[in-house]
Amino acid sequence: QVQLAESGGGLVQAGDSLRLSCAAFGDTFTNYAMGWFRQAPGKEREFVSAIMWGDGTRSYADSVKDRFTISRDISKNTMSLQMWSLKPEDTAVYFCAASRQKDSGGLGQSAGPLFLANTYPYWGQGTQVTVSS
Fold it and tell me: Which of 112, 111, 66 is nearest to 87 (CA)?
């Protein structure tokens, strides 16, 4: 069974950087998409970024483009989200998610199934990121 475990959250100041990691277990992830979502109090879970494990095709939400970078280390079965220039509005619980895919699901474009939380059947427990002003 696929299991995901996030780490790296914390309390930082506006303008700081933070790196989140997601360790994946339980399958060979070549045909998976892996994503990051976040949920702030009182708000819906929203797409942040996602990457195709096999070929590295990736997409970002407009709100984080040019500030966040998603990557994966195939040898270690880990995915990371490097976050720069953090803003108070980035404060949320960040979740990693995984979905076995037959195609890119819209990654590399501006929309598609992989931008939607309900496409992903596997989720981590989340890690809190708090950005103070």
Answer: 66
With 0-12 / 13-18 / 19 or more C-beta atoms within 10 angstroms meaning exposed / middle / buried, residue 79 is buried
Measured from the Cβ of residue 59, the count of other Cβ atoms closer than 10 Å reads: 25
Q: What is the rounded distance in angstroms from the CA atom of residue 130 to the CA atom of residue 133?
A: 10
Per residue in 9-61, pLDDT tens?
A: 999 999 999 999 999 999 989 899 999 999 999 999 999 999 999 999 999 99
Quick: pLDDT tens for 62-78: 999 999 999 999 999 99
Tokens of 132: 């103070």
Amino acid occupying residue 114 = L
The answer for residues whose C-beta is within 8 angstroms of residue 75's C-beta and 6 or more apart is: none
Residue 110: pLDDT over 90 = no
59 neighbors 107 (Cβ within 8 angstroms): yes
Residue burial 83-102, b: 16+ Cβ < 10 Å; e: rest: beebeeebbbbbbbbbbebe
